[in-house]
Amino acid sequence: MRGVIALTGATGFIGSALAQRLTKEGWRVRALLRSSTPPVHLTGTSLEWVRGTLDDCDSLECLVGDADVVIHCAGVLRGITEADFYPTNVEAVSRLASIAASRSPVPRFLLISSLAAREPELSPYAASKRMGEIALSKAADRLSWTALRPPAVYGPGDRALLPLLRLMWHGIAPIPGRQDARFSLLYVEDLAEAVVGWLARDVPERYAFELDDGHPQGYTWREVVETFERLRGRGVVRLQIPELILNLTARLNKMAASVIGYPPMFTPGKVRELRHPNWVCDNAPFRRIVDWTPAIRLEEGLRLALGLQASPARSARTQDGHDEL
Ligand SMILES: NC(=O)c1ccc[n+]([C@@H]2O[C@H](COP(=O)([O-])OP(=O)(O)OC[C@H]3O[C@@H](n4cnc5c(N)ncnc54)[C@H](OP(=O)(O)O)[C@@H]3O)[C@@H](O)[C@H]2O)c1
């Protein structure tokens, strides 16, 4: 056993990939669980569950316990106003970091932030991710911390991007961003691998690192659609969605969410994020310090995310004992 990791967000898309990768690496993972039962795909794993929420200090005390490392991956991605995001993405960071800082020895602290934190003016979500990093930096002098800023992360189990990717696989590509927009992407297992790399190295602490799959200058929507055309072996119908329609739909969704009471993903703030021209990451500072090379580029990542047949290259690698499809 390598040691104990206290993990939040293990029931979510990224957190469950982290939990599975870290247990496979030999870490003992203690994970926060706010529902009554763990998700089916995590039952029967060696995860140790601590019942509670991020609002509850007692649960967080239990979660942190004697952990060597705290990884805070829980976050709120859906909502309308600052009040929807702030309690989890900011206040809970302070709470958890203060508890970690009060321990002796003090555990290392990793925050899964977001590239959105680079442009906090765009949306309440982006602002909350930046504020979360600031809250962490102010939490305590004794705490050494790292924040990772992934761009859009995709993979099996993702609920945000996967519906759009499925539509593209079926031959229809609604394009919400500008034609000249460039954006980075990251396959979820490469993010988990980056965390494994971070754990293995003493990173100069108190720093936020961007991470991506290493595709130079990110992708354009055109490149994404062309990748689908290669995967399908036939064309994809492109539907460039005008900004006016995006804004109108987002406003209607926001109104419906307020009336019916669900947390919306597609809001005016999300439109501003989607229309931003530059979401390209620079992972060089992280790679200078951590021994990590992203392995999965878009075409392969889409195959894995959509559960398609492996490419010949990938099949050869699986015979060498790497991930199975
Ligand atoms: N997905 C992306 O493309 C992406 C990109 C960049 C950064 N990120 C960041 O990565 C992190 C994880 O994102 P994700 O896509 O995995 O989101 P997700 O699937 O929605 O998972 C969110 C996780 O946070 C937990 N959580 C939220 N509020 C909580 C609370 N009050 N108490 C306890 N647990 C709480 C959820 O628990 P329940 O299961 O109980 O709801 C779930 O485990 C977030 O911080 C997000 O900002 C995501």
Top-tier CATH class of the domain at 4-150 and 188-211 and 281-294:
Alpha Beta
What is the 3D shape? Answer: globular
At CATH level 3, the topology of the domain at 4-150 and 188-211 and 281-294 is Rossmann fold
Tell me what the CATH architecture of the domain at 4-150 and 188-211 and 281-294 is.
Answer: 3-Layer(aba) Sandwich
Q: Can you list the strand order of the major beta sheet?
A: 3-2-1-4-5-6-11
Taking all Cα atoms into account, the compactness measure Rg is 20 Å
User: What hetero molecules are in the model?
Assistant: NADP nicotinamide-adenine-dinucleotide phosphate
**Beta-strand percentage range:** 15-25%
What average pLDDT do the residues reach?
92
